[in-house]
Specification:
The protein is mainly α. The protein contains 18 helices and four strands. Helix 4 packs antiparallel against helix 5, helix 11 packs across helix 17 and helix 13 packs antiparallel against helix 14. It is globular and about 65 Å long.
């Protein structure tokens, strides 16, 4: 930490290894907020059994959480760009702890929804800050850095799914909320003291034809006026909606398929199908984010999107046809989440490549609100499943993912390349004109 003469804290200098330490701390913070989204499904049925509010009403809390988490990220990112990441992450740690403490005492839907808002504010503060900080520290490896950071969020719940499930059975869901909420919040709060942004500008990698990166730093208002941003936003919504629905509804789906408690044996391990599925989902999700980020650094963002979105469509189609078979349910959901989570590495990396590093936290925060928009579709899944069954829900998700895969290659790729090259040519032309005027 370095202090300026006026007492303000400036960012850390660029040192070999220091940025990797920053990345690791960001990953740990992300792991601590993972259960707010991915552990939620374990609490739905116990809450319903205790209060009889109905799944749809309880799942509305999940939607409120995701909407709050995502739509407030641009505001929280503005605070990061202005005051640094430390204070924002500290705030996030306090809020995520408070959220689960409130959940443990919630005896009405109003309090449950209030806790979702509080949790969303905290998770968004941590998520937006850590991903944005990774983009700033690693402009040369944006896909890998964003993917590794997002992996903390995707896989962070893997280590605690079984303990939480066991605690819910042995001590009740209220005790699980209280214990894990305080523990997760405390770890984030402590790590916040050590998180810092780079002090010097780090140059991006040498330009590659398959990985176009802008040399211009676009401000958030400029970004919002570009068509390429809104096309990326639309594709993000299309893909995220299916993943959020599956994450929130996987327990109800398993119960409706009557396989939740069916033992499944894989690689020498035996667990109930639902517990096995959720555990593998988190592992595959966590592995997929940095893996696809690394792949996109190598072959390009859009081709990687096409591979991932296409695979997701196939897995969802498999679930719609054979999801009632326990082993298929476990494996198909695992592979699906392995390719779904990459949106949280590819879109931040693509955003940084397209709009620059200086305002990366805020610009990515604006794009990340697409997750909140997608979450509005989650309650509809319960409505559709009640009327037509889960197969209909899966078929809709298949169509969205297949369309997104095609749009990545045939819409986003040419549009983004044209935008970057056009703006650079425009900038060069303006600079040349200014130079001639000064010479004259």
């Amino acid at each position: 930490m370095i202090s300026s003469t006026d007492g303000a804290v400036t960012a850390a200098p660029l040192r070999t290894g220091f940025r990797w330490l920053q990345l690791v701390m960001g990953i740990v913070c992300m792991a601590m907020i993972a259960n707010l989204q991915y552990g939620w499904t374990l609490f739905v049925d116990p809450i319903d059994a205790a209060h009889h509010w109905g799944r749809a009403a309880i799942q509305l809390a999940f939607t409120i959480f995701v909407v709050t988490e995502t739509w407030l990220v641009p505001v929280e990112a503005w605070f990061v760009d202005k005051y640094g990441p430390r204070i924002v992450v500290m705030f996030g740690g306090v809020m995520i702890a408070l959220s689960w403490v409130l959940n443990s005492y919630a005896d009405s839907l109003t309090l449950l929804y209030a806790a979702a808002v509080v949790g969303g504010m905290g998770a968004g503060a941590v998520y937006g800050t850590c991903v944005g900080n990774a983009l700033k520290w690693f402009p040369d490896r944006r896909g890998l850095a964003a993917g590794a950071t997002a992996a903390g969020f995707g896989a962070g719940a893997a280590l605690t799914i079984v303990p939480i499930a066991s605690m819910i059975v042995s001590s009740g869901y209220e005790h699980a909320f209280l214990t894990f909420g305080i523990g997760q919040g405390l770890i984030v709060f402590v790590l916040a003291f050590f998180i810092q942004p780079p002090r010097v500008s780090i140059p991006p990698r040498k330009k590659q034809l398959n990985l176009p990166q802008t040399k211009i730093d676009f401000t958030p208002p400029q970004v919002l006026r570009t068509p390429v941003f809104w096309v990326m936003y639309l594709v993000f919504v299309m893909v995220a909606s299916g993943g959020l629905m599956t994450a929130a509804q996987i327990a109800p789906i398993a119960h409706d398929f009557k396989i939740a408690d069916t033992p499944v044996t894989l690689a020498g391990f035996q667990m109930a199908a639902l517990t096995f599925a959720i555990s593998l989902d988190r592992i595959f999700d966590g592995f997929g984010r940095p893996f696809f980020g690394w792949v996109s650094d190598t072959i390009g963002r859009e081709p990687t999107m096409f591979i991932a979105f296409g695979t997701a469509a196939v897995m969802l189609l498999t679930l719609s046809a054979y999801g009632h078979v326990p082993v298929v349910f476990v494996l198909a959901t695992a592979v699906y989440f392995g390719v779904f989570g990459e949106i949280y590495s590819l879109f931040p990396a693509t955003c940084g490549d397209t709009f620059g590093s200086k305002f990366a936290t805020t610009n990515n925060g604006m794009l990340y609100t697409a997750k909140g928009t997608a979450s509005l579709l989650v309650p509809l899944a319960s409505v559709i499943s009640t009327a037509y069954g889960w197969k209909a829900v899966f078929v809709v998700a298949v169509a969205l993912n297949a369309t997104a895969a095609l749009m990545a290659l045939f819409v986003i790729k040419p549009l983004r390349r044209s935008f970057i090259l056009g703006k650079e040519a425009e900038s060069t032309s303006t600079a040349t004109g200014s130079a001639k005027t000064e010479t004259a």
